[in-house]
Amino acid sequence: MAYQVLARKYRPQRFADVAGQDHVTVTLMNALTQGRTAHGYIFSGHRGIGKTTIARILAMALNCRNAIGSEQRPTAEPCEVCESCTEIRNGNAVDVIEIDAATNRGIDEIRELRDAARYQPARDKYKIYILDEAHQITDAAFNALLKTLEEPPEHIIFMMATTQPEDIPQTVRSRCQHFSFHAVKLVDILAELRGIAEREGVDADDAALSLLAEAGDGSMRDALSIMDQAIASAPVADGKPVLDASQIRELMGTVPNAVFEKILEAVDGNRSAEVITVANQLLDAGNSPAQLARQFVRYLRNCVIAKIAGIGTDGADAEGAAGELLQISPDEQRRAGRSAALFGEEELTRFLQVMLRTFDELGYRQEQRFHFELGLLKLVHLRRLLPVEEVLSQFPVAGGAPQPRTQSAQARVAAPSPVANRVVSAAAPVSAKPVFSPFEADKSRKRFEGGEVEKIAVAAPAPVPAPVPAPAKAAAPVHVAPAVVPVKEFVPAPVATIVADVVPALPEVEVAPVDAVDGGVVDIAASSEVLEASSSPSSQAAELQRVATEALMNAKSQGSAADALADAEWTVEGGEVRVQTELSKNMLPMVVNPEAEKIVRAALREAGALKLVLLPGAATAKAAKKPRAAKSGSAQAKAMEHPVVQQAQKLFDAEIRNVIDLREGE
Q1: At what angle do helices 537-554 and 594-607 cross, to 10 degrees?
Q2: 235 and 341: one domain?
Q3: Cα–Cα nearest to 87, from 122, 114, 112, 119
Q4: Residue 536's pLDDT is what?
Q5: What is the count of structural domains for the chain?
Q6: Whose C-alpha in 56, 262, 397, 417 is 20 to 30 A from the C-alpha of 536?
Q7: CB neighbours (10 Å) of residue 102?
Q8: Contact yes or no for 499/658 (Cβ under 8 A)
C-alpha cells in the first residue's frame, strides 16, 4: 500500500478519537441515542480541526447496520465493522456523497443535486450529502436549495463544512443545526503528537513536540503535516528518526525565542547598538524580515499576556486561566515571564503596537531590512519616553478658568474705571510662568473678572512705544495724576496689545505727559466726571445695541444673532428702534430666530425702548466683506477720535480690530 501522510493515517474514526471537540461529539451522540437527528447540519471553525472528519463519523453512525444498544454496537459510536461503515471509511459508499463545493458551486450543479435527492438511497437508511467548503456556493445556488432544505425527504441529510459560516445565507443557516468548532488546545495537540511519535517509532523530545504543537496554531492537521515533514528531514539513529528543536526551527524558518528575549533585554538597557547587532546577525543568517517580525509579534503577545496574568520569572501561576491564554510550552512561559518582568503593561502594549505596524508595513515596502531595523529602534526610543501624565504632573496647576459674569460682577464693571486708557507694548518684559494647559495662553482673548477689560490685538512692528505727547488743552483742563495698573498676565506675541476703555469725546480732558515708559506700559488717567455718556440719539442707539448684543451673548447658542445685530446699523426714532441688518429677507428669521428676538425685546424693554423693528439688508452679493466705517457717535467712532488712540496708531502703524464699550449701568 502506498504511503499515507500522518494526517490521513491517523484520522479519527470514532467520536471519542476526536480531540478538543467534546461539545460537538457529546451532542451528536446524545441526538443519535434519542433519535433526534436533524436533516441539515453546518460544521464551522478553524482549518484542520475535524469538521469533515466528524461529518464522516456521523454518516457512519447514521447508516451503521447495527442498532444502538446491540452487542456489536453498545453506544452511539459506529461499529466500524459492518459493510456500510467500511465503505464510508474507504470513501466508496454509494449513499454518502462528498461534494467539493469550491468546484461545484453553481446553480446547475445544485439543481442536479436537488433532482437526485428525490430518489431513495440505494442500500443504506439515509442518503447523505457532505458539502465541503460550503461557503463557496453561490447565492443563487443556495436559493435553489432552500426548498429542499426546508422540507426535505425523510431519507435526505445535508452536512455542510465551512471555515466562513458568515458567507452562508441566513436563510440556509436557520434551516440547519449549526455547530461551531473550537481551535484545538496545545495540550491536546501535544498529547496526540506524543502518541503518534510512539506508534511511528520516532525519537522526539518534549521541546521538539512543543515546537510542532505551537506551529500547528490550534490546527491538528497543520501540526501533523509539519511533523510529517520534520520526520522526513530528521537524522536517523539506531533505525529511528530523531526530532530536534533546532532542526525543526531550521525547517520552519524560525529562530529561537531566546533571541527576542535578548532583544528586549537590550531595549530595557537602552542599548541601541546591541539591538541592531542582533538584528544584523539574524538577517545575515538568511531569515526573512517579515518572518522575524511575525515571530516577534507572537512573542510580545505572550509577554503581554504573561504580564496581565501575573506569571513570574520562574513560570509560577501559569496554571488555570493563564495557561489557557498562553498556549505555549512551560519553558516558553518562563521566558515570557522573564521578559514581561522588565517592562510595564503599557510599555509592552506600545511595543506590540509598534511591531504590528512594522509587520504590516513590511508587506509593501521595498527595503524590508531597513524597516525592520527601524521598528526595533522605535522600541528603544519608546523606552526613553516619559508618560504624558508624569510630564503634566510637573507643572503647577494654574488658576481656575474665568466663570460667566454674575450680576454683581457686571455691576462692578459698570462703575467708572479710574483708568481711561492703557497701552501695553509687545516688548514689555513679562515673567513667564509655567501653565498646566497650552491653552492657558488664550486668556488674553477672554474677559477677566473684577472690572478688567478685554485686550485689543493691534499689529505692532515697533517693539517699544515712544512717549505719548499730551493733546491740546481745553478751556478748563482737569489734571489727574497718572495711576499705574498692573497687568495680570502677558503672553509674548508678534503684536502689541492696546487695552482701551472707550469714552465719549471729551472737550475738557488733559492727559498728563509721561516722561518715560517703564516696562513698555503707558498709563493715562482721566477724571470720572468725563465718563458720562452723551444723550444724543446716536449714543442712545449705540447703548441699546450694546445692551441687546450683551443679552444675546449671555444666552446660550445665540452667538450668530449677536454677531448679526452687532454688525447692524441702529437708529432711534421716538420710541421705535430700527435695526438695519445686512441679512437677506430669507436669512434674517433664520439667524435672528424667535428666541433671539424675544431676548432682544426683553433687554430693550428694560432699557426703555418700546418697539423693535428688524429690517433686512439688500440682496446684493459681496465678493468680500469690507470693514465698516465707524458710525458717528458710536463707541468705535469715539475710540478713533481719542488722541491717545490716534497717537498709538501713528506710532505703531496700528489697526483697531475690536472695541469694547465699558459704560455699563449708565
Answers
A1: 130
A2: no
A3: 122
A4: 66
A5: 4
A6: 417
A7: 12
A8: no
What mean pLDDT comes out for the span 509-522? 40
In what helix (H) or strand (E) does residue 237 lie, and over which residues does it extend? Answer: strand 236-237
Grid cell of 424 as nine digits = 501695553
Burial tier of 603 (Cβ tally within 10 Å: 0-12, 13-18, 19+): buried
Share of the chain above pLDDT 70, in %: 74
pLDDT tens-place string over residues 243-263: 988 888 888 888 888 999 999
The CA-based dihedral angle spanning residues 59, 62, 65, 66, taken in that order and rounded to the nearest 10 degrees: 120
What residues make up the domain containing 217? 186-252
Res 593: pLDDT: 84
Report the pLDDT value the prediction gives residue 398, as an integer from 0 to 100: 57
Closest CA relative to residue 104, chosen from 129, 134, 127:
134
> What pLDDT score does 458 carry?
39
Write out pLDDT tens, residues 17-60. 999 899 999 999 999 999 999 999 999 998 999 999 999 999 99
Claim to verify: residue 24 and residue 163 sit in the same structural domain: yes
Give the separation between CA 585 and CA 571, rounded to whole angstroms.
19
DSSP at 134: G
Q: Are 129 and 118 in contact (CB under 8 A)?
A: no
Distances (CA, A) of 279 to 151, 376, 384, 417, 500: 63, 8, 20, 72, 66
DSSP 424: E
CATH code where residue 159 lies:
3.40.50.300
Tell me how long the chain is. 666
- The lowest-confidence range among 37-51, 220-234, 614-628 is 614-628
Q: Map residue 238 onto helix, strand or coil.
A: coil
- Confirm if 372 and 292 have CB atoms less than 8 A apart: yes
* CATH number, domain with residue 547: 3.30.300.180
- Cα dihedral 122, 127, 128, 134 sign: positive
Residue 451: phi, psi to the nearest 5? 85, 0
pLDDT tens digits, 300-340:
999 999 999 888 777 666 666 666 778 788 888 889 999 99
Residue with more model confidence, 317 or 348: 348
**Residue 471: count of CB within 10 angstroms of its CB:** 15
Whether residues 43 and 77 fall in one domain = yes
Exposed e or buried b per residue across 623-657, where buried means at least 16 C-beta atoms within 10 angstroms of its C-beta: eeeeeeebbebbbbbbbbebbbbebbeebbebebe
Asked if 308 and 371 sit in the same domain, the reply is yes
Do 89 and 204 lie in one domain? The reply is: no
If asked whether residues 350 and 371 sit together in one domain, one would say yes
The DSSP-derived string for 157-204 is EEEEEES-GGGS-HHHHTTSEEEEPPPPPHHHHHHHHHHHHHHHT-EE
Q: Are strands 576-580 and 521-524 parallel, antiparallel or unpaired?
A: unpaired
- CA-to-CA distance for 476 and 326, rounded, in angstroms? 94
Q: Tell me what the pLDDT averaged over the chain comes to.
A: 77
134 domain residue, yes or no: yes
DSSP per-residue string spanning 69-93:
TSSS-SSSS--S-SHHHHHHHHT--
**What are the grid coordinates assigned to 414, written together?**
459698570
Tell me the per-residue pLDDT of 258-302, one tens digit each, with 9 for 90 and over. 999 999 999 999 999 999 999 999 999 888 899 999 999 999 999
Using alpha carbons, list the distances in angstroms from residue 213 to 47, 194, 336, 491, 528: 15, 10, 18, 65, 92
- List the grid coordinates of 103: 468546484
pTM above 0.70, yes or no: no
State the CB neighbour count (10 A cutoff) for residue 300: 24
Instruction: Report how far apart, in Å, the C-alpha atoms of 342 and of each of 255, 256, 267, 339, 346 are.
Output: 22, 19, 10, 6, 12
Instruction: Tell me the one-letter amino acid at 89.
Output: R
The DSSP call for residue 623 is S
**Where do we find the cell 517703564?**
518
